[in-house]
Amino acid sequence: MFTSRYESFAQLPLDSLAAGTPVVSFDARGFVRDVLKRDVVLSKYVVDFGNTKLLIDRIVELLNYWYNNEGKYQNLIKHSRSLAENFSMKKLTNTYLEMFKSILMRQ
Question: Is the pLDDT of residue 10 over 80?
Fold first, then answer.
């Protein structure tokens, strides 16, 4: 659960995804809005800020999957980890290196 109003690069949700834990969150600017809310699977777990009833409903939904629908929950785990891999140190390092090379080539 991630209840911040704003987070430029939310380490907590990213760590959670990398561990295979789907994130239930308020719609916060930054990582949540730019990544989670745009994700076809996980966007369902991003709710309007302050809508605590829906936030709780989404948490209960995940708990029900965990207890009663292992296949569905395992798919969410795999998807969460896959999304987190897009932000691995290796991928981010390569992205920055390519950006810097591109800038240097223009000069």
Answer: no
Instruction: Give a yes or no: residue 84 inside a domain.
Output: yes
Does residue 1 belong to any structural domain of this protein?
no
Alpha-carbon gap, residue 102 to 107, rounded angstroms: 9
pTM for the model: 0.80
Which tokens is 7 given? 């987070």
Question: Are the C-beta atoms of residues 45 and 39 closer than 8 Å to each other?
Answer: no
> From start to end of 17-97, where are the E strands?
25-26, 29-30, 46-47
d(Cα 98, Cα 44) in Å, to the nearest integer? 33
14 found inside a domain: yes
CA distance linking residue 105 with residue 90, whole number of Å: 22
Instruction: Give the count of domains, the chain.
Output: 1
Domain that holds residue 64: 6-106
